[in-house]
Write a structure and sequence with these properties.
heterodimer; A: 544 residues; Cytochrome C Oxidase, Chain A; 66% helix; globular; B: alpha+beta; Immunoglobulin-like; 12 strands; elongated
């Protein structure tokens, strides 16, 4: 007697990774999950390139005189480090990798609203990246990532235009991604997924998309104007041509301050998911966290002048920008307190993603509080353009964004690849990164208040001890970043197969197999409850 | 040990203790909140650690009271800090005391040119007396620089095409580092020098010894330039010639041909020399018959002319 062999449907599933093979299937894919992986590879390459420049910077700063590289080289190193890390890693990292992968899955959609636009945005990003890489190969650019005029428009004789074109082009990929997310979140939510049932990751990406769409065109304009002045000597910023150098700073920071929130808001979104999952608890103060993202995005557009307290702008303008900048502290504090309160009476476990999340809260708290120092007018006069500022924004960008990015990558790695990473190594790496990070950047706060200006190739001897501490920390941090790189790649081949929901997490992305099928959901899910509902009776969502 | 490993720079100006007090408050507040968050997280993470895989904690909803507390308390704190910082900022960036000694600074890739009113000139060194307010009027020949003395807690960007100014009063004789804080190109990190604060007697000796080696005062140099450039042919001593008289002009309101009234400050004088048609004084021909001096004179010479015009009387601003 023969019985028909019924394979388990789970085992034979076609998933988005095995549905087709070959380079063409990747380069012409419109699947948001595959595009997320394309971005993952690209931003990782840029991260290690930017990191390589950081290594050289920290090596040079081991000793006070300029002995490892020359000033021309040093100035190019910190500029390329900034340009690559900000425009080609931090801005796209979480939205374009984790956001791309998760936004449709979390709201129960098949894909983003405009799948081909999504692929186009990756190509645009890559094209911009190639211009910047070309600029690097031809000798780099030495204006600082801030491109202050008239240095960038008239005086610098490095590859300003090539880099500027790279950033200009890449901006459009940001705009397209933001547009795609906005439309998707508005129009493609599953039945029952009302706004206040959205995971906070989605709220954070919604706020981020608003900034991407409204802010990025302004930096494009600023870059275009620098180009016009540099190539055709049209007087816009250089006073010798009748321009105003401070105008550039207004235009630049009108985008580049909100851009900081492009980098940190998605990170905050990730933290909400991690904290709730690893304490098995509904988020504390859902609506306060949701609206704090919108508040940060809105206020973010009104604080650019706090980069210009010492620039000679009117003291009254300084006053207005100072008080508005102070207000950003409130939604940030609301988030930190709510995350902390979420742990209360929870069921806390310490898997690697949670270690990153807890590390994030600590480091973001320090980064946020030191932001108040810089918003305080009289204190900023002293610490502006010193290592205090460098330390502050690395606490936000590296201690915040990269910790959250790594936490998110670990958390969703089983979902994205269908493989489990080695937990012991992951916890160890999280610890190494936390220790290395603090040793690198805590001494820089002290250095800054002592008066060491940023972007200094040569520095006075009294600053050496703190600089050596910082470089030592950076070497630990560097090792910390290499470890996950190695075991992630290892796990692709040797990692155990991941179950559908390894963390016992809530959220629609955990209802589909790991890795998900190309079309995400076999049946459109219907959402019947609030997110993060870990109570025993709840279903949260079910498939009808 | 702390002598070898200081956390604060020296306090060598009247502003320094005030900035440090505010900084100290901020550090204290930050340590409080950092400790609060770290302790809460550690306690919660240990006390509520997962004890069994099946464990499901009881649901806890949000608390409006808590939300209000942690919005209101930080809001009160940051507004207070804002007020404190703004008050001090207005003092630092506000008008210098009338008795302030005015020194002129021109930044140039990659050095600081200093001119004293008494004519001494220095490069990358600034000699000043202790106990007297000093006002710096600054500009640059090329890109943006920033004049920064950490031990005084003062910094101000030096912007091409305009004058920025800052004032301070050094309290202790000594040598203090001077940095350029705004990235300005290849040798940015070497655009540094020393501020040498002396007691008034020593300072007088330094002035008498010639300091930089000049006897002609800044205003005299300006007057010589005024003659050389033949400014006096049109801007006559008393009765107006082709151009308005400049006697007693500085700091006074000037009525313009278009009906506006502006104050003849440094920015106005600078603009009128470099771009004579920008603002025509009421009663004079437009366009002006005066040639532009843009590119004809250096920033240092322009400052000498200003010093001369100021010496012709008028109100100190």
């Amino acid at each position: 007697m023969s019985t028909p062999v019924v394979e388990s449907p789970r085992a034979s599933r076609v998933n988005y990774l095995n549905v087709s093979y070959g380079i063409r299937s990747w380069l012409f894919t419109t699947d948001h999950k595959r595009i997320a992986l394309l971005y993952l590879v690209s931003v990782t390459l840029f991260f290690f390139l930017g990191g390589f420049f950081a290594v050289l910077i920290r090596l040079e700063l081991m000793t006070p005189p300029g002995d490892l590289v020359q000033s021309e080289t040093y100035n190019r190193l910190f500029t390329m480090h900034g340009v690559i890390m900000i425009f080609f890693f931090l801005i796209p990292a979480i939205p374009a990798v984790l956001g791309n992968f998760l936004v449709p899955l979390m709201i129960g959609a098949r894909d983003l609203a405009f799948p081909r636009l999504n692929l186009l945005s990756w190509y645009i990003y890559t094209l911009g990246g190639l211009f910047t890489l070309a600029a690097t190969l031809f000798g780099g650019v030495d204006t600082g990532w801030t491109f202050y005029t008239p240095y960038s428009s008239t005086y610098s004789n490095s590859n300003v235009m090539l880099t500027a074109v790279g950033i200009f082009i890449t901006g459009f990929s940001s705009i397209l991604t933001g547009l795609n997310f906005l439309v998707t979140i508005h129009k493609m939510r599953a039945p029952g997924m009302v706004w206040f049932r959205l995971p906070l990751f989605i709220w954070a990406h919604y706020a981020t998309s608003l900034i991407m769409i409204l802010g990025t065109p302004v930096v494009a304009i600023a870059i275009l104007l620098v180009g016009l002045e540099r190539l055709f000597h049209i007087g816009i910023f250089d006073p010798k041509l009748g321009g105003d150098p401070l105008l550039f700073q207004h235009l630049f920071w009108f985008y580049s301050h909100p851009a900081v929130y492009i980098m940190i808001l998605p990170a905050m979104g990730v933290i909400n998911e991690l904290i709730t999952c690893f304490s098995r608890r509904r988020i504390f103060g859902y609506s306060f966290i949701a609206f704090s993202s919108i508040a940060i995005a809105t206020l973010g557009f009104l604080v650019w002048g706090h980069h210009m307290f010492t620039s000679g702008q009117s003291v009254y303008a300084g006053m207005v920008f100072s008080v508005l900048s102070m207000l950003v502290a409130i939604p940030s504090a609301v988030k930190v307190f709510n995350w902390t309160a979420t742990l209360y009476k929870g069921s806390v476990s310490y898997q690697a993603p949670m270690l990153y999340a807890l590390g994030f809260i600590g480091l973001f708290t320090i980064g946020g509080l030191t932001g108040i120092f810089l918003a305080t007018l009289a204190v900023d006069v002293h610490v502006h353009d010193t290592y205090f500022v460098v330390a502050h924004f690395h606490y936000i960008m590296v201690g915040g964004t990269i910790m959250a990015y790594l936490g998110g990558l670990h958390y969703w790695w089983p979902k994205m690849t269908g493989k489990v990473y080695p937990e012991g190594w992951a916890r160890f790496a999280a610890l190494v990164i936390f220790v290395g990070f603090n040793l690198t950047f805590l001494p820089q706060f002290v250095l800054g208040y002592l008066g060491m200006p940023r972007r200094y190739h040569v520095y006075p001897e009294e600053f050496q001890v703190l600089n050596v501490m910082s470089s030592a920390g950076a070497s630990i941090l560097g090792v910390g970043y290499l470890i996950p790189m190695i075991y992630f790649i290892w796990s692709l081949r040797y990692g155990p197969k991941a179950p559908e929901n390894p963390w016992g997490a809530k959220g629609l992305e955990w209802l589909v197999p790991s890795p998900p099928p190309p079309h995400n959901f076999d049946v459109t899910p219907v959402v019947t409850g609030e997110p993060y509902d870990y109570s025993p009776k709840s279903e949260g969502a079910h498939v009808r | 040990m702390w002598r070898d490993f200081p956390l604060l720079p020296e306090r060598a100006s009247t502003f320094a203790p005030e900035v440090d007090a505010l900084y100290g408050f901020l550090v204290g507040m930050s340590l409080f909140f950092i400790a609060l968050i770290f302790i809460l997280i550690t306690v919660f993470a240990i006390k509520y650690r997962r004890r069994s895989e099946e464990e499901v904690p009881p649901p806890v909803r949000g608390s409006l009271t808590l939300e209000i507390i942690w919005i209101a308390v930080p809001l009160g704190l940051v507004l207070m800090i804002f007020g404190w910082g703004a008050a001090l900022y207005f003092k630092m960036y506000g008008r210098a005391p009338a008795e302030a000694l005015e020194v002129y600074v021109v930044g140039k890739q990659w050095m600081w040119h200093i001119q004293h009113p008494t004519g001494q000139r220095e490069i990358n060194e600034l000699h000043i007396p202790a106990g007297r307010p000093i006002k710096l009027t600054m500009t640059t020949e090329d890109v943006i620089h920033s004049f920064y003395i950490p031990d005084f807690r003062v910094k101000k960007d030096v912007v091409p095409g305009r004058y920025t100014s800052i004032w301070f009063e050094a309290t202790r004789p000594g040598r203090y580092r001077l940095f350029c804080a705004e990235y300005c190109g290849t040798k940015h990190s070497e655009m540094s020098g020393w501020v040498i604060v002396m007691n008034p007697v020593e300072y007088q000796n330094w002035l008498n010894s010639g300091g930089g080696g000049r006897i002609e005062s800044l205003a005299q140099a300006g007057e010589r330039l005024f003659q050389q450039l033949a400014c006096h042919t049109c801007h006559g001593e008393d009765d107006p010639g082709l151009g308005p008289s400049l006697r007693g002009l500085f700091g006074r309101p000037v009525r313009l041909a278009d009906g506006r009234t502006v104050v003849a400050d440094e920015a106005y004088l600078r603009e009128s020399i470099l771009n004579p048609d920008a603002k025509i004084v009421a009663g004079f021909a437009s366009p002006s018959s005066m040639p532009t001096y843009q590119g004809q004179i250096t920033e240092e010479q322009l400052l000498q002319l200003l010093a001369y015009l100021k010496s012709l009387g008028g109100e100190q601003r």
